[in-house]
């Protein structure tokens, strides 16, 4: 037995003992029940646990092993050990032992082993090799752009080589999607398969019209920096093509990969590590320690939102196989958003009194970077009843619940305390949504502070025109009698919220 296997074995036995003591306490509420009878039973459990663990080579974990094989060994060994202890303790009727103690101990240790094996697997498989399919040379600083372009043209692979490379890596349908936006024989095409921005940074500025990366963006740790590098290398209207695995696609893949029940066990661990841990300050460090930011889970909205924040606009998106492929064009310089948040609370840019931009506090109801997609979603889906965007894929499952319970807007109380908002008033709008309003209403709106309880909940308008009319009536009435207007609108809104179940959609 090598040293690593011995350490894993000893650690496992300690966890087994700790779990056993925990369930003794749960069952009997006292450690005094650690009698010779139970200690003898634990000795039998430890012997069966040791024999089955080494028989199934549970501690012999190597890099080449798949996660399923590692988990399979754990489950086989532990189920056999459970069978052995069941036969000796219960089938032979050997003295009054609690099933909760033994079944609970084995279940708890099995869960712990599966969690550790998942984290270990993610750790040792987090690194990936980058490759540049065209292998372009570094940019010599003394060469002029024309000389660099000529050098790259001479080294550029043939159209057939480019097609074959994409076919091998991505498949025929992905190639069909990509070829709508470039010619394989175009010397101003850069084709890479990389997870690092340095393979892009080494290219000459403004030479390539199209950049294609056939590696998933999920494997790029500093994703925005990568998109920013691509943006800098492309001219205006230059095209960038890439792909990503969305969280929905990832869930489908994971559930298909493993047998029933076990697939949800693995998905639960994956969701905890990849979706929950990055959202909190303390657990974010654990997430990056084990994953180094690679193979991350990205929502559909986050992928597109990051692209928009980095100066691109969507030309086309399409699901091919189990990946989302996108073609985007450069429309502006990146926003360089250094304050993007993943946590449950967000601060959104909204137009306040005097047209001043204020940061409005809310509970997160949308995926990260979703705010950059307002114009895209509006052009694609337009508005639904109540003035919200129709079929808004940016809203998360938990966010829909927050909106239904009217919880997402409660943190705006902070803005009221800061003097940026008031209790009743027109809702604070984003710059894009504000631009949809008539000029007259825009000018009227910025004369007053926005409010937590908007006239929407009093009038319940359905279309944008009805919303504008409702807000104009409120503002005109507020100019004449502020207290009376707010008193009337507040109680009418409360009535609709409580008794007519009015909610933010």
Task: Please give the structural blueprint.
Layout: H1 3-28, H2 36-55, H3 67-91, H4 99-124, H5 145-155, H6 159-170, H7 172-178, E1 189-192, H8 198-201, E2 210-216, H9 223-233, E3 239-244, H10 247-257, H11 262-276, H12 281-291, H13 300-309, E4 312-320, E5 323-330, E6 345-351, E7 357-363, H14 374-381, H15 397-404, H16 413-417, E8 422-424, H17 431-435, H18 439-445, E9 451-453, H19 456-459, H20 464-480, H21 482-499
Parallel strand pairs: 1-2, 2-3, 8-9
Antiparallel strand pairs: 3-5, 4-5, 6-7
Helix pairs in contact: 1-4, 2-3, 3-4, 4-11, 6-7, 10-11, 20-21
Tell me the series of helices and strands, N- to C-terminal: HHHHHHHEHEHEHHHHEEEEHHHEHHEHHH
Distance between the termini: 61 Å
Helix content: 40-55%
* Number of extended strands: 9
Q: State the shape.
A: flat
The structure class reads alpha/beta
Task: Indicate the proportion of strand residues.
Answer: 5-15%
Low-confidence stretches: 126-143, 151-155
What value does the average pLDDT take? 81
Strand order of the largest sheet: 1-2-3-5-4
Radius of gyration: 30 Å
Q: What is the overall number of helices?
A: 21
Could you say how many structural domains there are in total? 4
- Main beta sheet: 5 strands, mixed
